[in-house]
Amino acid sequence: MIAALALLLAAQGAPAGQSDATAAQVPVAPPAGQAPEASPATTTPPPAAAPAAPADLAALTRVRLTTQAGEILVGVDTKAAPVTAANFLRYVDQHKLDGIGFYRAVKVADGYGLAQFGTRNDPKRTLPAIKHEPTTLTRLSHRDGTLSMAMAAPGTAAGDFFITVGDLSSMDATPDNPGFAAFGRVIEGMDVVRRILAAPTSPTLGEGVMKGQMLAPVITITAARRVD
């Protein structure tokens, strides 16, 4: 079995000129089948509900992320996660993701991990934080290719996102842990996401558990656009 790892997911990396130590953090749960780390958050989500069947692709709002590593087509579930999905689409429609990048690759275990991207607290790009939509309400789950929100605690998620590689459903909410807010999934381009996860990281950038997880160089998203 894969050994459990105590890893942290930063809500956002620090922008240029700021220390990564300023980034709020929460535990990342290990792959499915392993005991998740306890969350420090005090908000208790509703009792867990069985995950819903995957949404029909036609019901998802499609967004194409054009990156230096290739294109990723994601589907945003505005019905299951209306608040979180609308937040992401605001960033897309206001072109606030153009020029930002995938800046962090968290390798949880062989074949498991996540690639993180976002505004990294840039005040010119970051919109106000949104309320937390736990998976106990949305009935979404962190499976291979899930698009989700990074956060420090419920109510702090704003402009940083991640895509999971492998089944990380232990990142879903439970009665004792708010989990993370899944709101979409990759439709095409998981090969690109896996390349990003495997991309070189700096041995010196990042602080604490983030050291060794910061991509060097950052993989730029040149454009994020809705696809009709």
Give structural notes:
There is one protein chain. With 228 residues, this protein is mainly beta. The protein is 11% helix and 30% strand. The chain contains three helices and ten strands. It has helices spanning 82-93, 135-138, 190-197, and strands at 7-10, 25-28, 61-67, 70-76, 101-109, 112-118, 146-149, 160-165, 182-188, 214-227. It has an eight-stranded antiparallel β-barrel. The protein has a two-stranded antiparallel sheet with strand order 1-2. A hairpin with a 2-residue loop joins β3 and β4. It is globular and about 40 Å long. Residues 1-8, 15-30 and 33-50 have low confidence and may be disordered.
Beta strand count? 10
Secondary-structure element string: EEEEHEEHEEEHE
* Measured distance between first and last alpha carbons: 43 Å
Q: List the quaternary state of the chains.
A: single chain
**Biggest sheet: strands side by side, in what order?**
3-4-9-7-8-6-5-10
Radius of gyration: 16 Å
Helix content: 10-25%
What is the beta-strand fraction? 25-35%
Average predicted local confidence, pLDDT: 83
Q: DSSP helix count?
A: 3
The parts where pLDDT drops under 50 for at least 5 residues are: 1-8, 15-30, 33-50
Biggest beta-sheet profile: 8 strands, antiparallel, barrel
Strand-pairing-aware structural class: mainly beta
**Apparent shape:** globular
